[in-house]
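Progress note, sequence design subtask.
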């Protein structure tokens, strides 16, 4: 390692060259093992940054690179999302037959205030809303806020 560091040094900054020397040592095939130490550890040879850049026979040009990226972007077609019908809303089983219901009070409550108000009489049950009597007047309330009274 010392010889490799001395051979690659152009100035006194050996600590900057140390990672490259260690990478070179781990990638160099050993004659007696017929593979590099990196291959023995990882099961395959290491890929260094130069392996990711293809060798181009045509010189690089910005306009050619731009047109290549543009043609790839134009050829991209997003996968359409799937649609399997309308979502089903979940309603408690005995809510549709309940004569009285509780309505959730979703506001700031004191510690001893109940979570639901009621019971209120059901005038007309529906799929998504119920018509209930609140303070003597009929009102529409979503089933998401309701709980059957037992």
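Output:
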């Amino acid at each position: 390692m010392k010889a490799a560091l001395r051979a690659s040094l152009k100035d006194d900054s050996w600590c900057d060259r140390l990672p490259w020397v260690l990478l070179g040592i781990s990638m160099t095939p050993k004659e007696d093992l017929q593979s590099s130490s990196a291959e023995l550890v990882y099961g395959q040879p290491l890929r260094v940054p130069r392996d990711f850049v293809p060798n181009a026979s045509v010189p690089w040009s910005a306009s050619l690179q731009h047109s290549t990226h543009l043609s790839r972007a134009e050829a991209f077609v997003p996968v359409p999302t799937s649609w399997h019908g309308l979502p089903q809303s979940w309603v408690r089983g005995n809510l549709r037959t309940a004569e009285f219901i509780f309505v959730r009070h979703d506001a700031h409550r004191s510690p001893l205030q109940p979570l639901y108000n009621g019971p209120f009489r059901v005038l007309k049950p529906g799929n998504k809303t119920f018509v209930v009597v609140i303070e003597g007047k009929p009102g529409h309330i979503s089933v998401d806020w309701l709980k059957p009274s037992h």
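Strands lie at 100-104, 116-124, 129-134, 137-142, 146-148. Work on this subtask will continue into the next period as scheduled.
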